[in-house]
């Protein structure tokens, strides 16, 4: 049972890591957009 359960624990962690990375990228993108709107330096 444990041998079958251990391979199943790694894909959710990778998916969670991907979701966290996506949230960080979208947050940094939103931050850069708001900063460019507040300080329009082109």
Molecular structure report:
It is a single chain. Helices cover 88% and strands 0% of the residues. It is mostly helical and 42 residues long.
Whole-number average pLDDT? Answer: 77
Shape designation: rod-shaped
Work out the strand percent.
under 5%
Distance between the termini: 59 Å
Total helix count? Answer: 1
Short description:
This protein is mainly alpha-helical and 42 residues long. The protein has one helix spanning 2-38. 88% of the residues lie in helices and 0% in strands.
Question: Would you spell out the secondary-structure blueprint of this structure?
Answer:
Blueprint: H1 2-38
Quick tags:
42 residues, mainly alpha, 88% helix, single chain
């Amino acid at each position: 049972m444990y041998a079958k359960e251990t391979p199943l624990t790694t894909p959710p962690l990778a998916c969670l890591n991907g979701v966290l990375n996506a949230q960080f990228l979208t947050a940094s993108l939103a931050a850069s957009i708001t900063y460019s709107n507040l300080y329009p330096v082109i």
